[in-house]
Design brief:
By secondary structure, the protein is mostly beta strands. It contains five helices and 37 strands.
Amino acid sequence: MQARTLLSTAIAGVLFSGGAHAFGFTLTEKWTHETNVFDESAAEIVAYDSASNRFFTTNGDSNMIDVINGTDGAKLFSIDPQGSPNSVAVKDGTVAIAVEATTVTDPGRVAFFDTNGNLVNSVNVGALPDMVTFTPDGNRVLVANEGEADGGIDPNGSISVIDISGGVNSATVSNIGFTDFNVGGSRNGELSPDVRLFAPGATVAQDLEPEYIAVSQDSTKAFVTLQENNSVAVVDLTNGTIDEIQALGYKDHSLPGNGLDPSDRDGGINIGPQPVFGMYMPDSIASYEVGGVNYYVTANEGDARDEDERVKDITLDPTAFPNAADLQQDQNLGRLEIATDMGDTDGDGDFDELYAYGTRSFTIWDETGNLVFDSGDDFEQITAALLPNAFNSNNDENGSFDARSDAKGPEPEAITIGEIDGIMLAFIGLERVGGIMIYDITDPNNPMFLNYINNRDFSVDAEDGTLDGTVGDLGPEGLLFIPAAENPFGQNLLAVSNEVSGTTTLFEIQKVPLPGTLLLMTVGLLALRRLRS
């Protein structure tokens, strides 16, 4: 761990006053823990224990959990979970680690440790446990078992519910699966046709792949992203059943405000309406309550299972796309990656509609799955304005301007929420270009963009800058909000784990007063640079 001083080297963020309050929020780095390991997932998911003031970060390079001092970011020791850790969560001094099996299609485990790294218990869960979280009341641990196919074996996706109400040593496990939704099953008729099922020869239970979990504040419901299926499963934790599977539908990128830049070969930044639908396909999810109503918030990354093709390599229906030859040019839609399992609406072998991966946005949904708010093309518009020379960059290569426009753009992956002075904030990590978007989501119908902070140094080589600690953070994967009352600093904090740079960075979230209550916009920080102090 090396000390850093953050300097403003250019215009670096946009702070909005919403009229109701003349202030914004920004992030100031407190410390960064560096593994100096490039692009090996050496820091993916981060958790925090307030009693010991320790952070716990999954290290996919060493297959360990790095335990980090919350005061200065120094590594204290590592926990060996005896396998590959995919996720970690901490509550009341108990560390829960999701560990995949050596054969990834076999059942995985959740290993429980104390915060000093002593093994307390271990229980079996479903195949490929990808995310683990505690319920707010601390009585259960929930696990999203992705169950990805491998080597010709496709295990069922599932959600494990670990009851620890009687203590971790007495933990019991129940698995909630999707077999009732299989063809011929008692609930198959409940599935919307927009629940995306496309693995050849797979049952519904095999095709559905739980990715990430958010839990209602009263610990009675869980909202589970089924990323590749473009859906969310709502789980009744009281009865241990699935309430419903909510198909998320599609974003119409042809509408004003929903545009995208679809090409990495157009020689510049060209964000605009396109005749494409976006599948939300969220990765991370968080939930909050307003007026007694649960809402969940998604980071709409997108993901493929090798069924994708570029628009230029498919046949477009001449009626639906009379300008097909022009659209399929590289500088237009030709390079855009789309799904080939959908879009042929009349079954004649050509494509009548185009469906891209992710929506380059975050979305707020009510608990019944209705879309309440979507950020539209904000992320590309904001990064284009603030990082015009690094727009849609790769996360493992500097000097890669526009390289991700043909795929998923800035690729929002991580999301967390937190309340400060009665204001509910959403923090969204952009996996590719990097950085954190901050929105005021207090009113779910009228969220407000507040700031964008990116501490990546685009002037250095990405790999060399990781090895010597000069590049900053690359590839934010995990975000964690820590309220002021739950840490010894007495400050609201945001922890970010970054899989490409292998760094874990702790930020103080600062409320920034703006001059004048009628001020609608002021310029703050845009590209933060880090120098050795």
